[in-house]
């Protein structure tokens, strides 16, 4: 099920951010890397449950985002990890099929256009 971003969810304080990218050591790597949400869900029907079988955590940090919605935070992260990548980040530029988890709570799939919440 595809859900739209919930703009009403606002983080008023710092947020924990985790970035996951497709593991290099799995057979399905070429099937799901840089693919859109619909296609990845065909290969991995229960992506949220099976996340660690297909993805590995590439980066984790906490940041004070002030008062921003999920959509704003996700767009800030997309910009940061494409244009101003931290030196200690060892993954590739944030791209389609990558996943961001905010505050151990909500998982977001970077789709071809925008973000999809994983349920």
What does this protein structure show overall?
With 119 residues, the chain is an alpha+beta fold. It has helices spanning 29-32, 37-43, 51-54, 70-83, and strands spanning 10-11, 14-22, 55-64, 68-69, 99-102, 106-110, 115-118. A 5-stranded antiparallel beta sheet has the order 3-2-5-6-7. The chain is globular, with a radius of gyration of 14 Å.
Q: What are the SSEs and their pairings?
A:
Elements: E1 10-11, E2 14-22, H1 29-32, H2 37-43, H3 51-54, E3 55-64, E4 68-69, H4 70-83, E5 99-102, E6 106-110, E7 115-118
Antiparallel strand pairs: 1-4, 2-3, 2-5, 5-6, 6-7
Provide key terms for this protein.
disordered N terminus; single chain; two-stranded antiparallel ribbon; 7 strands; alpha+beta; 5-stranded antiparallel β-sheet; 119 residues
